[in-house]
Design a protein that fits this description.
- The protein has 462 residues and is of the alpha+beta class.
- The chain has five domains: 87 residues, Uridine Diphospho-n-acetylenolpyruvylglucosamine Reductase, domain 2 (2-Layer Sandwich); 119 residues, Uridine Diphospho-n-acetylenolpyruvylglucosamine Reductase, domain 3; 106 residues, Alpha-Beta Plaits, CATH 3.30.70; 91 residues, 2-Layer Sandwich (Alpha-Beta Plaits); 37 residues.
- It has 16 helices and 21 strands.
- The strands form five sheets. Strands 15-12-14-13-19-20-17 form a seven-stranded antiparallel sheet, sandwiched between helices. Strands 5-6-10-8-9 form a five-stranded antiparallel sheet.
- Helix 1 packs antiparallel against helix 3, helix 8 packs across helix 10 and helix 13 packs antiparallel against helix 14.
- The longest helix is centred in the last third of the chain and has 20 residues.
- Bound molecules: flavin-adenine dinucleotide (FAD).
- The site of flavin-adenine dinucleotide has 37 residues, from strand 3, helix 5, strand 10 and helix 12.
């Protein structure tokens, strides 16, 4: 890396937070994906929007790529510095600036870790529902840039439903304020939403105002055991059609529950083909009524057994099991292709049936885990990237999974984003005029394409 650039960056942020050693660069060269990695030339860790602004001005003037980064837990290749250049990591911008219990809002810097935020809110009886299962490490900036979801989103919605205001630094260095601290805001286009889910390609988010809700007073967790995955999938639609919207409905298949039982024995029914984990929450009286209705529906829908957690400790055990699910999948093979498709919720059983057919046809075992209440599954295929033939076939099997989801009216990504991982499928999944509009918006906001270049759409289109 040019000494001059390093010196210029150090002038902006100070010494010790401009990293260029091979070890440091390697640390920021990968993310949660199994197959993507690329070395940046330099990593810079600013602490203020003004510093971010100066870094972007410098990069824009010199046409240097900048890849924004939070904790690097994304699973779409979003924070891979695929064109080299600067990784701008926001983890030192980690202050919770305000929690307003009367207005039910909070304002945070982007590097606040989601779990730290949750703990701070819990002390005040407040609740921020979007709960990606990487909550122990992921940053709020990363969750806004990915519009992340999680189990609670069945009832409460995904990140975008909570973003009220943003401060964003544009590629030019301009520090722009969007939205505000009101829950209603009809002032022109909803530009804060444009940046929510923009995967670091339109600007660097430096401040976020979020809507909060009071912590639900009570909850009840249920675990339903199924001998057939398709029957389990149909039970999800039956619950939603019964007039109850539970806080969470999660799906775990036999493979994953056996892996979890191996890792942390807790007496899971290891012969079950599928488990549904369901939570009802709200006032104590409402929870009783809803839980009874859910249990009745599960039994009528073919559950072999329905367990209601007797106390908070048992419920916490089940949810810990669920949050270990993704890690259990990733540890299962040398290379794990874990996807993130979403289908209409009334098509979940049909989709699970199609996954079975694809597995049979291609010979690849497919594991199933996901936010079933949102129709959002993470089918995973186990392969080895160093075995070229097997890896190519695994990718073809994954393409069949995408096709199956799209054919049911589903989408390429429910929550993980497009990044690098799914850009080659984007043309297939999107209206071409809409795709070109996106590229034009990108060019308008970032004419030199310095912000997270090479992401979302295939390069030759830009
Ligand atoms: C075990 C595990 C479980 C997971 N479970 C879920 C889940 O349930 N639901 C879900 O939605 N996701 C899940 N994920 C994916 C991931 O954790 C989320 O996408 C999360 O939002 C990423 O946050 P991060 O801080 O790690 O961001 P990063 O991975 O660092 O970055 C993600 C994207 O955001 C951009 N970005 C980061 N910070 C900024 C900023 N300040 N300004 C502009 N752009 C920025 C980056 O360029 C990149 O494109 C999981 C991942 C793992 C490893």
């Amino acid at each position: 890396m040019e000494k001059k650039l390093r010196a210029q960056l150090e002038k902006i942020v100070g010494k010790g937070v401009v990293l260029t050693s091979k070890e440091d660069l390697t640390t920021y060269s990968y993310d949660g994906t199994a197959t993507w990695a690329h070395m940046p030339e330099v990593v810079v860790l600013p602490t203020t929007a003004e510093q971010v602004s100066q870094i972007l001005k410098l990069a824009n003037d010199n046409k240097i790529p900048v890849t924004p980064r939070g904790a690097g837990t994304n699973v779409s290749g979003g924070s891979i510095p695929i064109k080299g250049g600067i990784v701008l990591c926001a983890t030192r911008m980690n202050k919770i600036l305000d929690i307003n219990k009367t207005n039910l809002t909070a304002t945070v810097e982007p590097g606040v870790v989601l779990q730290d935020f949750n703990l701070a809110l819990a002390k005040q009886g407040l609740f921020y529902p979007p709960d990606p299962q990487s909550f122990l490490g992921c940053t709020i900036g990363g969750t806004v840039a990915e519009n992340a979801g999680g189990p609670y989103c069945v009832k409460y919605g995904v990140t975008k439903q909570y973003v009220l205001g943003l401060e964003v630094v544009l590629a030019s260095g301009y520090i722009m304020k969007l939205g505000g601290v009101t829950v209603k805001n009809r002032t022109g286009y909803e530009l804060a939403m444009l940046f929510t889910g923009s995967e670091g390609t339109l600007g660097v988010i430096t401040k976020i105002t979020l809507k909060l809700i009071p912590m639900p007073q009570a909850s009840k967790t249920m675990m339903a055991v199924f001998d057939d995955m398709v029957v389990g999938g149909q039970a999800v639609s039956n619950i939603l059609a019964s007039g109850v919207v539970p806080a969470k409905i999660e799906f775990v298949d036999n493979f994953i529950l056996r892996r979890i039982e191996e890792m942390m024995p807790m007496g899971l029914p290891v012969d079950a083909q599928a488990l549904l984990l369901i939570m009802a929450d709200g006032s104590p009286a409402a929870v009783e009524v809803e839980a009874k209705q859910i249990v009745d529906t599960l039994k009528k829908s073919g559950a072999r057994e329905v367990k209601v957690a007797k106390d908070a400790a048992e419920a916490a055990k089940y949810w810990k099991m669920r949050s270990a699910g993704f890690a259990a999948t990733f540890g299962a093979a040398k290379t794990v292709l874990a996807e993130d498709v979403a289908v209409p919720r009334d098509k979940l059983a049909e989709f699970i049936g199609k996954l079975g057919e694809i597995s049979e046809r291609t010979g690849f075992f497919i594991s199933h885990l996901g936010h079933a209440g949102d129709g959002n599954l993470h089918p995973a295929i186990f392969t080895d990237v160093s075995d070229k033939e097997n890896f190519a076939k695994a990718q073809e099997a994954m393409e069949e999974i995408f096709e199956a989801a799209l054919s049911l009216g589903g989408v390429l990504s429910g929550e993980h984003g497009i990044g690098l991982e799914k850009q080659r499928f984007l043309k297939r999944a999107m209206d071409p005029v809409a795709l070109n509009l996106m590229i034009k918006i990108k060019s308008l906001l970032d004419p030199n394409h310095i912000l997270n270049p090479g992401k979302i759409w295939e390069e030759e289109r830009v």
